[in-house]
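User: Here's a chain of 342 residues. Predict its fold as tokens.
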Amino acid sequence: MLNKDLTISKDMFEPAHVDPNKSEKIAKASLNFWQDSWLRIKKNKAAIVSMVILILLIIMAFVGPLLTPYGYSDQNTKHNNLPPRIQGLENVHWLPFDGTLSRRDGTEYNAYEVRKVDAYYWFGTDNLGRDLFARVWKGTQISLFIAFMAALIDMLIGVSYGAISGYVGGKTDSIMQRIIEVIVGIPNLIIVVLMILVLKPGIIPIIIALTITGWTSMARVVRAQVLKFKAQEFVLASKTLGASNFSIIFKHMIPNMFGIIIINTMFSIPNAIFFEAFLSFIGLGLQEPNASLGSLVNDGYKSMIAFPYQMIIPSIMIALIMVCFNLVADGLRDALDPKMRD
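Assistant: Prediction complete.
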């Protein structure tokens, strides 16, 4: 039923007053590509947590060796093979930081009290009495340096090679792609092992060995993107305006594929860490007194039954770094290029 007191006036049928100055006002600030990507990656909790863990690990890789009074190469054979012991946690017996070891018959004893050692080694010591806390963080530092340098060189070579191959095309592209196929056809392990044997083990030879074949996947991805961009309007406009080929490739095309480049680089870092650890584990890595995570695992493997902490701690570090890098790379893939999610 209609309300009898309701009156309908002509004013109710007049058009609404619209302020032309506010009709197209943007209520929210526009976002650029990187801001929009950051909003997407913030929704990925696993990637954010992994990013925080990686930042902490990178900081500790440089700060960790300074937190202990023992140098990573200082030897004290009187303190060899001591288990982890941390101030304040030594009386908490359910934590593995009270300095106890197990005998073959299953009985436990405090190695520090038996050997009358008045010191604290947070991660224990190795068979030469070197502090594992300092060595683990120094090994993390070296492993991350090798991985980042290998990934950076792979990115520079792969991006340049793939961009030139895809843009020039024709016989040049065919020859450059056949070279990649020859390199990929040879097993990566054989090339790396031969290079290490020729150049002798060390940081620079390992980086060179990792980059010999590591750039090929980046080159193929970049070439495919260049072939896709080559016929688009902004490239044709640049040619019409007289831009050089170098300018078109490195000032117009490559900035449009930063997302793909970053994603592939992030995925190549854990691969480089694993490969370096593998080389060190089979004895082709760094030589004493230098240490990487792989060489620490190799040293701990020799006494795994008696002193398992010597292998478990660097193994956990390798696994943590690789898992975090893969989760961050996966989050960046979803954020920078949502089409790749499917």
